[in-house]
Design brief:
- Keywords: Membrane, Transmembrane, Transmembrane helix.
- The chain crosses the membrane at residues 7-33, 53-77.
- By secondary structure, this protein is mainly α.
- It has one domain.
- Helix content is 85%, strand content 0%.
- It is built from two helices and no strands.
- It has helices at residues 5-40, 48-77.
- Helix 1 runs antiparallel to helix 2.
- The two termini are 28 Å apart.
- The model has no long low-confidence stretch (mean pLDDT 89).
């Protein structure tokens, strides 16, 4: 049996980069939700635009994470 080390290294590199990217994207979504909570509980003069922007950013990050997971499942099943 012969191991193709270049292919193994390529798979490892792509998995590492995509894992770090997906975890980072999910973390950004959690941070955006935390910003939404802190902006909502802030002083009465705080703008509602920042709350809506934080919520939209969080939903976008979580949507991209779900899309990446769905694409991975599609690649495995197909």
């Amino acid at each position: 049996m012969k191991i193709d080390w270049a292919a193994l290294g390529s798979v490892f590199g792509v998995s590492l980069v995509s894992t770090i990217g997906l975890v980072g994207l999910f973390t950004l979504g959690i941070v955006a939700l935390a910003k939404q909570e802190s902006a909502a509980s802030g002083p009465a003069g705080s703008s509602g635009g920042s709350v809506a922007l934080a919520r939209t950013g969080a939903y976008a990050c979580f949507g991209l994470c779900a899309a990446a997971v769905a694409y991975g499942i599609y690649l495995i099943v197909a």
